[in-house]
Write a structure and sequence with these properties.
With about 325 residues, the protein is mostly helical. The protein folds into two domains: about 140 residues, no CATH class; about 150 residues, no CATH class. Helix content is about 75%, strand content about 5%. The protein has twelve helices and three strands; from the N terminus they run αααααααβββααααα. It has a three-stranded antiparallel sheet. A hairpin with a 2-residue loop joins strand 2 and strand 3. Helix 1 crosses helix 2, helix 1 packs across helix 4 and helix 2 packs antiparallel against helix 6.
Length: about 325
């Protein structure tokens, strides 16, 4: 038991040691980045990131920083001795230019892109391309917090809202509720509900896709089929979670009134969405795991004479 506890504590101790050793080298850089981006983060945390459409931003950024923190010993191991990459300097210039344009012209998309570019450039200058290869997923993951152009979002969101409204109407009608629909407006009893962008928008789909990719990166399944299938299933999972969210809001409004529905929308609707999506992701992943094991067991050969086929079934690592 003592050896197992020691083995479990060893990675955490190695991580703390690596971070402590890196602090003298990196604290001026981190301080400079903090001072540079303080205005942007202040605006994000007091504006877009407290709304529903961009409320996933701090979650994405926090998880990305945690992934970098978690993989930092791998960076140190892969880049000792450190080798600087000249490509970091043009990327740094591009990131600073994007930040200047974004701040001066109030283009939020460019400001957030500049954060990613500057962080990647600093890593290239300090540790080289190998470090960026080790940390490719956290930087890719941060792209999900970049807001898309409003015209593109509006064009894609309307069909999604129509589909969610249609599904909500037909499900509740089949359950016996007095509901009708006109476009994206639902009429249930004496109440009318408008299916808003936050309830069925493209940004919700991208947020749930990010959640699924983070889950895949964390689990690291050895089966390529399982990884690809789960990534594809994120799209119908997102649609289903949105439908469940709208159904819950509709039923709360129907039973408890418009004030309760609106209060729930601002307080707990996002929580319902992500809990539903997480449950669906775990359920689909469990079903895929069962399917992969069954397929491996079925294709594991027929046993020799006197041995039943499939007696030895390879188990997939979890």
């Amino acid at each position: 038991m003592d050896s197992k506890v020691h083995a479990a504590r060893a990675p955490a101790a190695a991580l703390r040691t690596a971070l402590r050793d890196a602090l003298p080298e990196w604290w001026p850089v981190l301080l400079g980045l903090g001072v540079l981006f303080v205005p942007t983060f202040w605006y994000l945390f007091t504006g877009p990131w407290i709304g529903e459409e961009q409320g996933h931003g701090p979650i994405i950024f926090g998880l990305a920083i945690w992934l970098i923190y978690r993989k930092w010993p791998d960076v140190i191991a892969a880049t000792t001795p450190p080798r600087s990459s000249w490509t970091g300097w043009p990327i740094l210039a591009l990131g600073l230019l994007a930040y200047l344009l974004g701040r001066s012209q109030k283009i939020l998309m460019m400001e957030i892109v500049s954060i990613i570019l500057v962080m990647a450039a600093v890593l290239l200058v300090k540790r080289g391309a190998t470090a960026l290869r080790v940390l490719w997923f956290p930087f890719f993951f941060m792209l999900f917090m970049v807001p898309l152009p409003s015209e593109f979002v509006a064009a894609v969101t309307m069909p999604m809202k129509m589909a969610v409204s249609w599904a909500t109407e037909h499900i509740l009608w089949a359950l016996g509720y007095p509901i009708s629909r006109s476009g994206v407006i639902l009429q249930i009893g004496q109440y009318q509900l408008l299916v808003a962008d936050a309830c069925a928008g493209l940004q919700t789909l991208l947020t749930l896709e990010a959640l699924g990719l983070f889950y895949l990166n964390l689990m690291r399944h050895p089966s390529a089929f399982r990884n690809i299938a789960l990534a594809i299933f994120i799209v119908p999972i997102s649609f289903s979670a949105n439908v469940i969210r709208v159904i819950v809001l509709t039923l709360i409004t129907y039973y408890y009134g418009d004030a309760a529905g609106q209060g729930f929308l601002h307080g707990f609707a996002g929580m319902v969405l992500f809990i539903t999506a997480l449950v669906l992701i775990l359920s689909v992943d469990s079903a895929l795991q069962w399917f992969v094991r069954r397929r491996q067991g079925g294709g594991g050969g027929h046993g020799g004479p006197g041995r039943p086929g499939g007696a030895l079934r390879p188990k997939e690592a979890t």
